[in-house]
């Protein structure tokens, strides 16, 4: 690098500059930084210029435009100087300057290679002595910061730091240096004669200064009119969740995350309520480095740089038909300028089932079952014979264990000006709380960006994952475990066989037997590669063209084996071969998904005086296809069994009966073409206007029906009031912004049908004539010619503010979304289904979020943040209502929240016949009497009948909230995350309206059952023959509110100085506990129950959410 | 150089965009990657009709309405031949609701029964709509139309017997609102049944035989299937002449005869036999492949453990049924499987209370030879007989006896004696009309025990109150309450049955 030559500048002269000039200066310095590296040296650039009678300033600008020279001067110094004329060809800079500055009293000095300082001669004589200052700028975590701007306050003079954070500048010895970098708080440093400076920059905590990902680009949050929340990758990296979105629970206002306990399983995510009725129709769009996706199962949480949650119409309209449910945009880690960085981290976690569902033990079971048999009038030899059933088994305990999770990640990154390279490798071994449930996966992330010259960037990204999936039936078997009678022993050691179930074998099998025998007979591997290549070209100064091609290719390869299996039956004291496991069989299948996307985006960005414009137009296509092939075969009736050895678990295994080979396939494809446009405009940085438009054409609709294309658009406006002059006199707000937006967004919902306009032909049955099997052609539903995408009209209005000297930042937003022409599969009564656009649905609420920073003492910092969201869902006018199931109470009815529970209101229990006679007559069909639930006569007509049902619960909470407290002291940090849900109801299906096809084990609360006058006024008499007690009613309703300490974390960062000798840049150790404690009011495993958009919050006895303790270490070399 | 790269990339990108704009229409035209009805000749009419046959095996289709526990509950438990079965504590509610006549407005069974019957009706209507909109009138299409109408009639016949007045849906529902229809008087439902079956009688072929006299489609509907159902529909309305006329056409066709051994009817060898008029088909091939079965037999199989785990044990014979057979009636041991006794194949059924009942339905017993060939223990391969020649003979006898007159009485006696003789019983002689009526009732009870006939027979003979009154049957129990789910769906258009 060339040295910067000494220059004499007076800060007095150069002190007063206009803001516009400073902006220009920044640009100048950016160029300057580049030139330091690339320009060849002084005096080589020749100038050709012809200008007549022009102001000196304009001549200088003309030179700036044509060359790499940059001029530093004050308006004052050239004000009033005579106009000049130049006409030079291939002249040197000195020649030109000498000519135009002649007789003006202005002297010039050339600094470094291309910076020219102009000054009035008389002042130049009095300049102070200059000194050469060198310095190093690091972040508060000790990382060197490249590209930081270092300027002399009040001047255009300055430099930027190199890749190692070093800079050198020659300045007057009393200069004040302004150090600034995007994302960091600016600092002013008085040189005071020092020649060596060490500066540590603090990351800007001003939320409005964050650069956020918006569709097809990035922007500073300050310039936007919408609501985007940025979450740092660090928040998800060290949490024990394979799926990174699981870690967002409680962190973001408006984002509801309902986790399930299964390793790797995607949580049920809804942003700002339930916007669709379709299964999967409430899922947000995931945007990973630009590629659209419906899941992010392939990502390693450690490779995530940041996550942005886009919630409002003005941010979402650009995503067209996929925007209405919100967008979760993920940016993966890229190399940061700096030397080679190697990061290694490892985490060990231990998982435990907590909040187990309480079921009765063997003695309690016998007592209850005896009572129930008596109630049923069963006597004598028809009574169940307990003799051979001597167990006292807690089946849930038999199925579960303490699981461990091990995560290791290694990354390598390196960046120079020309090339940025990042490589990450991760390995996770996650055990579930169900025995043998295990997910193993390896991920990698590779990306590189090459800069060709100044304006062309080429790059690629590649994410890969290979995983072995957990045993798929585990969850279902845990579900069964709850229902097995405790008197059934698990295993008979003497006969070396698992027990057949007492009584229940007609409908269920021993879940421990299946788990122990089958978990390793299923081999399911998933492979996925997600990659992109892109070119980014800047041209004509204000334009940028970015073309990117994306591919996401995945496959699931599965094989499974069915062994010959026996059970022990104590009633006959024999071991017998189970009828479903009397012959070996294999299954083999392969499914693959391809997704291809291309984006071509042209961006124009220019500041025209007070007008800031970023306009964007683009063209994008998306194509996805799916192919699945499934096959099975069995051992022959007379031949050898297929061995229990995975070598043979293929269709062609040499042992099978070829006549038993069955195959089938499934396939579909879809294409979308879209055009889009967006304008981000601001005036004086105070008034913001954002508009976007997108038209999506989709092959989902038929071309001959003529409705393939649909428009989506939005407009938003914001006003940064705190920039107004009239606002400068108040002391409350340091920042205040008012914002609002409106738009029409889409939901790409086809109710799970690949070809909604072509009803699929049923494959679930064939016609049989004797032994002739004939294919059938029956449409599974009726299609509607006018089918089209449902759309969501969204609105929001809100404010953002900083108060208390910027220590408290807050945002308050009111949102309203109306889904129009909901697309739904309507059961037209009696099994005839029609896919059609029906009524409207509304979601509205308020989101609050705030964060507060306070320095409590020297090196002791406190950060408190919180969020709060209200929800209000209502299914509006529609001629249809759905969900008339007699077991499940979830309904979609006009005027009520989606999925509302319907049923009777329990007033108590009929204690006696006198009580029955004194109460309104219950006309529900069956007889009833003492011990039965007494339903309330809601309409007061003296009869309890089907008119006395009402909404008895709402699965959508009134509000959800989350909070975080972080304390930092020196290297220590301590954080606690809390989260809660309030005001929703859960319907407990088990123990209420669960179909009793066999007799299940009793929940513990059945010990409180009515068994004589005055024994209970809530839990009814035992006996499935009392059918009225099984009708959906408030007996099954439980309060879904809960509060949870989601995470507690403590960490320590070692002092970098101490680590230097070991060549370690940073070292962090941490420990955390996830789900430490949940204060819940329901009796299920957890208070969290996702589901379909029309039926959720129903506790069928699934989904324990474990407590996880983790420890980890993170090292940077 | 830099400019060159820049321009190259720019041009490439613009070119790509151009090509893609041009290709957009093609890019977006993506019909499904498998057949839709539009790809099939005549809208896939025959395939759609086959779909009606297949619908009986489809768990999301009509299966639960015709061959599963909701069907047993509404068509069989209520009679005095059969009861819920299984162990007392298993499905105790079903026994209360159906055996003890505490009808429940919202019970899963009735909802499934209703929905899956209307599912069949809607599918049949869709077939008819296709034929109608394509104006198909060729002979093959006329057969298909007649088949769809038969299935619609069969389904309405169940509905009108179970619920009485029901909504008449005889059109394709294209707007879900169209399905919200009020009930119509039973006469309208009967009229629809008659009209549909007349179309069947007119268009269905007498058989599906090929040149060598073997059926190309064993068990597919024939003209006589429609006649038999039409006769039954008339019998239920005491249209004796109409019923007799149709039965006589079937008898005189010579296409049908009684199997010599009653028990063969309930074995694989008796499927689609000379006696069969309509059966819901099931087939499970060697080694269990293909597996196009239904669980009609599984749900009724012996509820034992180990090798005696043959099913759920539902729909079991009542003690009264066991006691009702005349001595020497071969049908008794073909109908009732006794716990603790020989199964007829040399194995002993475990005794009560090792298995939770004394009697099981022998008519669905899994033959050991088929167990061996399919590799399955539980019987999911057996056809579910719906109409057979014995029924035609007894219907003819009943109608003739009711019409009276020497010739009719003689015929009636002949037909009853054909049934008795096959059962190993002596011939009856004519004494009085009432006596013969009683004999026919007894023959129907013995002949069709466990087959879902008895309750409806008792109701139409007005015997239900006297026979079932002790269990809780009243006049109100003739018709089951409409499922609450259907009433809820209709938004008040559908009115609950009287008494409920």
Report how far apart the termini of chain B are. 89 Å
What's the helical proportion of residues of chain A? under 10%
Can you give the mean pLDDT of chain A?
A: 86
Helix count, DSSP H or I runs of 4 or more residues of chain B: 19
What is the number of beta strands of chain B? Answer: 10
Q: How many extended strands of chain A?
A: 65
Provide the helix percentage of chain B: 40-55%
**Beta-strand proportion of chain A:** over 45%
How are the strands of the biggest sheet of chain B laid out side by side? Answer: 1-7
Shape of chain A: elongated
Q: Which percent band covers the strand fraction of chain B?
A: 5-15%
Work out the helix count of chain A: 13
How would the blueprint of this fold be written?
The complex is a heterodimer of chains A (1117) and B (500).
Chain A: H1 19-38, E1 47-54, H2 56-66, E2 70-72, H3 75-78, E3 84-91, H4 93-100, E4 106-111, E5 115-120, H5 121-124, E6 130-139, E7 149-152, E8 158-160, E9 166-172, E10 176-180, E11 187-190, E12 196-201, E13 211-214, E14 217-220, E15 228-232, H6 234-237, E16 255-258, E17 268-271, E18 285-288, E19 291-293, E20 304-310, H7 313-316, E21 327-332, E22 338-352, H8 362-376, H9 395-399, E23 403-415, E24 419-431, E25 438-452, E26 456-468, H10 474-483, E27 491-492, E28 497-499, H11 511-518, E29 522-539, E30 543-562, E31 566-569, E32 574-577, E33 585-608, E34 611-635, E35 656-683, E36 687-698, E37 709-720, E38 733-747, E39 767-769, E40 772-774, E41 782-783, E42 790-803, E43 808-820, E44 823-827, E45 833-837, E46 841-857, E47 860-870, E48 872-875, E49 890-891, E50 900-903, E51 906-909, H12 913-918, E52 921-922, E53 933-935, E54 943-944, E55 950-953, E56 959-969, E57 972-982, E58 985-988, E59 1037-1039, E60 1042-1053, H13 1056-1059, E61 1066-1080, E62 1091-1092, E63 1095-1096, E64 1098-1099, E65 1107-1116
Parallel strand pairs in A: 2-5, 6-12, 18-21, 28-31, 41-45, 52-54, 58-64
Antiparallel strand pairs in A: 1-3, 4-5, 6-9, 7-8, 7-10, 10-11, 13-14, 15-20, 16-17, 18-19, 20-21, 22-23, 22-65, 23-24, 24-25, 25-26, 26-29, 27-28, 29-30, 30-33, 31-32, 33-34, 34-35, 35-36, 36-37, 37-38, 38-42, 39-40, 42-43, 43-46, 44-45, 46-47, 46-48, 47-56, 49-50, 50-55, 51-53, 56-57, 57-60, 58-59, ...
Helix pairs in contact in A: 10-11
Chain B: H1 2-28, H2 45-55, H3 63-66, H4 69-77, E1 82-85, H5 92-99, H6 108-133, H7 139-162, E2 166-167, E3 183-184, H8 186-203, H9 223-236, H10 240-253, E4 276-280, E5 283-284, E6 291-292, E7 314-317, H11 319-323, H12 330-335, E8 336-338, E9 359-361, H13 368-374, E10 384-388, H14 389-403, H15 406-422, H16 433-447, H17 454-460, H18 464-468, H19 484-490
């Amino acid at each position: 690098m060339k040295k910067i030559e000494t220059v004499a500048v007076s800060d007095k002269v150069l002190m007063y500059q206009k803001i516009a000039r400073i902006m220009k200066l920044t640009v100048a310095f950016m160029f300057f930084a580049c030139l330091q590296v690339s320009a060849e040296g002084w005096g080589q650039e020749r100038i050709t210029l012809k200008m007549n009678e022009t102001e000196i300033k304009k001549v200088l600008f003309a030179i700036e435009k044509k060359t790499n020279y940059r001029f530093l001067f004050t308006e004052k110094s050239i004000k009033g100087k005579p106009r000049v004329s130049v006409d030079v060809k291939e002249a040197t800079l000195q020649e030109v300057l000498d000519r135009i500055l002649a007789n003006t009293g202005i002297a010039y000095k050339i600094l470094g290679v291309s910076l020219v300082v102009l000054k009035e001669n008389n002042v130049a004589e009095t300049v102070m002595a200059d000194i050469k200052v060198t310095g190093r700028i690091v972040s508060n975590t000790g990382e060197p910061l490249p590209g930081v701007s270092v300027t002399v306050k009040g001047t255009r003079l300055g430099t930027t730091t190199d890749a190692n954070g070093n800079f050198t500048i020659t300045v007057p010895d009393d200069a004040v240096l302004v150090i600034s970098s995007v994302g960091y708080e600016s600092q002013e440093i008085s040189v005071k004669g020092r020649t060596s400076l060490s500066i540590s920059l603090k990351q800007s905590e001003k939320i409005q200064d964050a650069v956020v990902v918006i569709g097809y680009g990035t922007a500073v949050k300050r310039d936007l009119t919408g609501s985007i929340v940025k979450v740092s990758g660090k928040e998800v990296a060290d949490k024990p969740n394979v799926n990174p979105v699981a870690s967002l629970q409680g962190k973001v206002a408006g984002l509801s995350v309902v986790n399930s306990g299964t390793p790797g399983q995607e949580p049920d995510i809804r942003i700002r309520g339930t916007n669709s009725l379709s299964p999967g129709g409430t899922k947000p769009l995931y945007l990973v480095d630009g590629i659209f996706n419906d899941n992010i199962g392939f990502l390693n949480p450690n490779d995530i740089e940041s996550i942005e949650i886009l919630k409002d119409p003005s941010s979402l309209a650009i995503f067209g038909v996929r925007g209405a449910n919100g967008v979760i945009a993920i940016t993966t880690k890229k190399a940061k300028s700096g030397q080679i960085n190697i990061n290694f981290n490892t985490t060990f976690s231990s998982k435990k089932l907590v909040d187990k569902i309480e079921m009765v033990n063997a003695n309690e079971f016998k007592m209850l079952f005896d009572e129930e048999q008596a109630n049923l009038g069963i006597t004598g030899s028809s009574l169940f014979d307990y003799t051979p059933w001597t167990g006292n088994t807690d089946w849930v305990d038999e199925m579960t264990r303490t699981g461990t999770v091990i995560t290791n990640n290694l990354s390598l990154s390196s960046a120079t000006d020309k090339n940025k390279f990042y490589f990450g490798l991760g390995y996770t071994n996650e055990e579930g709380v169900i025995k043998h449930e295990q997910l193993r996966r390896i991920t990698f992330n590779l990306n590189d960006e090459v800069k060709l010259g100044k304006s062309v960037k080429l790059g690629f990204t590649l994410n890969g994952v290979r995983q072995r999936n957990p045993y798929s039936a585990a969850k279902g078997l845990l579900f069964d475990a709850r229902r097995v009678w405790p008197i059934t022993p698990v295993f008979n050691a003497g006969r070396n066989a698992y027990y057949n179930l007492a009584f229940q074998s007609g409908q269920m099998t021993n879940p421990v037997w299946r788990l122990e025998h089958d978990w390793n007979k299923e081999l399911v591997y998933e492979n996925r590669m997600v990659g992109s290549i892109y070119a980014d070209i800047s041209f004509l100064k204000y334009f940028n063209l970015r073309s990117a091609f994306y591919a996401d290719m995945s496959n699931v390869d599965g094989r499974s084996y069915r062994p010959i299996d026996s059970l022990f039956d104590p009633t006959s004291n024999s071991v017998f071969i189970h009828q479903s496991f009397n012959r070996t069989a294999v299954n083999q299948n392969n499914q693959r998904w391809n997704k291809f996307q291309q984006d071509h985006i042209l961006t124009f960005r220019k500041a025209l005086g007070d007008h800031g414009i970023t306009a964007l137009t683009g063209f994008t296509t998306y194509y996805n296809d799916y192919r699945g092939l499934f096959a099975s075969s069995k051992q022959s009736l007379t031949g050898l069994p297929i061995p229990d050895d995975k070598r043979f678990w293929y269709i062609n295994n040499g042992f099978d009966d070829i006549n038993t080979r069955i195959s089938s396939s499934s396939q579909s494809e879809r294409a979308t073409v879209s055009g889009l446009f967006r304008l981000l405009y601001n005036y004086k940085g105070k008034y913001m206007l954002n508009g976007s438009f997108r038209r999506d054409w989709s092959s989902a609709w038929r071309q001959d029906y003529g409705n393939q294309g649909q428009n989506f658009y939005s407009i938003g406006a914001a006003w940064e009031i705190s920039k107004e002059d009239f606002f400068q006199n108040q002391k409350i707000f340091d920042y205040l912004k008012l914002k609002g937006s409106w738009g029409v967004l889409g939901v790409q919902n086809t109710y799970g049908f690949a070809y909604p306009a072509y009803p699929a032909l049923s494959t679930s049955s064939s016609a049989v004539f004797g032994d002739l099997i004939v294919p059938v052609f029956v449409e599974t539903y009726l299609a509607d010619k006018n089918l089209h995408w449902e759309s969501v009209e969204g609105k929001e209005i809100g404010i953002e503010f900083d108060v208390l000297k910027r220590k408290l930042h807050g945002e308050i937003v009111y949102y309203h979304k109306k889904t129009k022409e909901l697309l739904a599969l309507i059961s037209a009564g009696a099994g005839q289904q029609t896919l059609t656009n029906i009524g409207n649905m509304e979601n509205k609420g308020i989101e609050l979020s705030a964060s507060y920073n306070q320095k409590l003492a020297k090196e002791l910092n406190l950060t408190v943040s919180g969020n709060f969201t209200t929800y209000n869902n209502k299914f509006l006018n529609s001629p249809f209502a759905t969900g008339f199931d007699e077991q499940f109470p979830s309904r979609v009815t006009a005027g009520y929240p989606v999925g509302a529970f319907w049923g009777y209101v329990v007033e108590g229990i009929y204690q006696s016949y006198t009580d029955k006679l004194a109460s309104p007559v219950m006309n529900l069909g069956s007889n009833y009497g003492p011990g039965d639930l007494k339903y309330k006569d809601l309409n007061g007509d003296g009869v309890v009948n089907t008119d006395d049902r009402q909404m008895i619960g709402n699965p959508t909470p009134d509000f959800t909230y989350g909070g975080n407290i972080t304390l930092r002291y020196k290297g220590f940090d301590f954080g606690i995350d809390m989260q809660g849900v309030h005001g929703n109801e859960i319907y407990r299906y088990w123990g209420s309206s669960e179909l009793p096809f066999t007799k299940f084990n009793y929940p513990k609360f059945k010990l409180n059952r009515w068994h004589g006058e005055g024994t209970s006024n809530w839990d009814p008499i035992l006996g499935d023959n009392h059918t009225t007690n099984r009708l959906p009613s408030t007996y099954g309703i439980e309060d879904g509110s809960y509060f949870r300490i989601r995470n507690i974390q403590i960490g320590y960062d070692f002092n970098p100085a101490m680590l230097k000798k070991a060549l370690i840049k940073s070292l962090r150790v941490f420990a955390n506990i996830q789900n430490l404690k949940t204060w819940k009011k329901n009796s299920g495993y957890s208070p969290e129950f996702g589901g379909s958009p029309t039926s959720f919050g129903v506790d069928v006895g699934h989904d324990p959410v474990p407590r996880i303790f983790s420890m980890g270490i993170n090292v940077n070399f | 150089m830099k400019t060159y790269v820049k321009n190259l990339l720019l041009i490439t990108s613009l070119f790509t965009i151009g090509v893609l704009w041009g290709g957009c229409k093609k890019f977006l035209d993506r019909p499904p990657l498998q057949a839709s009805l539009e790809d099939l000749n005549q809208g896939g009419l025959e395939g759609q009709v086959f779909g009606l046959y297949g619908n009986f095996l489809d768990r999301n289709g009509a299966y639960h309405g015709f061959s599963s526990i909701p069907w047993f509950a509404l068509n069989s438990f209520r009679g005095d031949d059969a009861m819920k079965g299984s162990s007392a504590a298993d499905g105790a509610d079903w026994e209360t609701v159906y055996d003890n006549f505490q009808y429940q407005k919202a019970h899963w069974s009735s909802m499934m029964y209703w929905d899956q019957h209307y599912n069949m009706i809607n599918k049949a209507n869709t077939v008819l709509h296709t034929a109608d909109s394509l104006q198909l009138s060729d002979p093959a299409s006329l057969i298909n139309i007649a088949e769809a109408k038969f299935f619609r009639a069969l389904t309405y016949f169940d509905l009108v017997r179970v619920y009485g007045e029901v909504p008449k849906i005889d059109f394709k529902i294209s707007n879900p609102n169209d399905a919200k229809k009020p009930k119509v008087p039973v006469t309208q439902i009967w009229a629809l049944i008659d009209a549909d079956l007349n179309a069947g009688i007119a268009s269905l072929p007498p058989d599906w035989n090929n040149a060598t006299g073997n059926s190309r489609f064993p068990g597919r509907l024939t003209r006589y299937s429609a006649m038999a159902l039409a006769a039954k529909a008339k019998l239920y309305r005491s249209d004796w002449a109409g019923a007799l006329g149709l039965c006589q056409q079937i008898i005189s066709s010579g296409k049908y005869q009684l199997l010599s051994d009653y028990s063969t009817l309930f074995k694989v060898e008796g499927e689609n036999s000379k006696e069969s008029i309509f059966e819901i088909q099931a087939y499970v091939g060697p080694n269990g492949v293909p597996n196009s079965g239904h669980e009609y037999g599984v749900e009724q199989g012996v509820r034992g453990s180990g090798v005696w785990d043959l099913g759920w044990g539902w729909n079991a014979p009542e003690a009264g049924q066991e006691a009702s057979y005349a001595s020497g009636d071969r049908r008794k041991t073909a109908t009732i499987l006794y716990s603790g006794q020989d199964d007829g194949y040399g194995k002993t059924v475990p005794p009560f209370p090792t298995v939770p009942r004394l009697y099981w339905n022998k008519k669905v017993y899994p033959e050991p030879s088929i167990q061996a060939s399919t590799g399955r223990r539980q019987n999911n391969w057996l056809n579910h007989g719906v109409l057979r020649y014995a029924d035609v003979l007894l219907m003819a006898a009943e109608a003739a006896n009711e019409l009276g007159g020497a010739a009719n009485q003689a015929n009636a006696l002949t037909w009853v004696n054909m049934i008795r003789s096959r059962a190993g019983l002596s011939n009856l002689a004519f004494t009085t009309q009432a006596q013969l009526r009683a004999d026919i009732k007894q023959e129907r009870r013995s002949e069709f025990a466990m087959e879902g006939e008895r309750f409806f027979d008792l109701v139409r003979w007005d015997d239900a109150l006297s026979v079932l009154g002790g269990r809780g049957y009243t006049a109100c129990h003739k018709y089951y309450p409409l499922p609450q789910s259907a009433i809820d769906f209709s938004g008040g258009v559908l009115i609950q049955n009287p008494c409920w």
